[in-house]
Amino acid sequence: MPLILLIEDNHDIAAMVGDYLEHAGFEVDYAADGVTGLHLAVTLDVDAIILDLMLPGIDGLDICRKLRSDAGKDTPILMLTARDTLEDKVAGLDAGADDYLVKPFEMEELEARLRAMLRRAGGAMAAEILHVCDLQVDTGTLQVRRQGKRIKLTPIGLKLLIALVKASPKVLSRRALEREVWGDIAPDSDALRSHLYNLRKAIDKPFDQPLLHNVPGMGYRLSDPDG
């Protein structure tokens, strides 16, 4: 039975989500503030986290950053937010969230997105070393290096990179990339754009030659700039 950590300070929403998920076959642990939520997220072996953006103590963005950067956790995170602007969505994804859901939401969509995250996190692949130019991806250890330097990526950034490396030098359409990460539950266009922006910052910005290219009207390609 998957263990879900719900970090939500609105007791009515927390009770509704908790009851629904328990009836759907999940085990749910709960925190009503950011400090407690961060402690549980670090100390418990949970399968996924449902995280509200606005929390007392520590907000959802800081919890995401601390889990990804300080604790080194790659637990799938679904962020709940009442803010639906592009800037707020990008901020959540930049902080390390894997997906987001804008309040108010339907419980069926929450469950579907949660199950999709769990499937992605549990998907197995045969270990192999993938290369494009001086970029190396080890699908066994999930380590990424360029020019020998270790690059840290979010789980979604890693999935996008692996898809692009495997397809290289072919172009992958936006829909193909979305399907690779989110399956048939497509996010709005902001999510993919934000993750690709972060991926480009990680694998290209510190280096002289860009590898990730936008092909207008077609999609994205990872390729050797000299090839």
Describe this structure in words.
Helices cover 43% and strands 21% of the residues. By secondary structure, the protein is α/β, with parallel strands linked by helices. A 5-stranded parallel sheet has the order 2-1-3-4-5, with helices on both faces. A hairpin with a 2-residue loop joins strand 8 (143-146) and strand 9 (149-151).
Could you give a short description of this structure?
The chain is built from eight helices and eleven strands. It has 227 residues and is α/β, with parallel strands linked by helices.
Strand content is 15-25%
The unreliable regions are none
Q: What's the total count of β strands?
A: 11
Average pLDDT number: 87
Secondary structure category: alpha/beta
Domain module tally: 2
Shape: globular
How large, in whole angstroms, is the Cα Rg? 18 Å
Q: Approximately how much helix is present in the residues?
A: 40-55%
Write the CATH homologous superfamily of the largest domain: Response regulator
Largest β sheet strand count, sense and barrel closure: 5 strands, parallel
Q: Helix segment count? A: 8
CATH topology of the largest domain: Rossmann fold
CATH architecture of the largest domain: 3-Layer(aba) Sandwich
CATH first level of the largest domain: which class? Alpha Beta
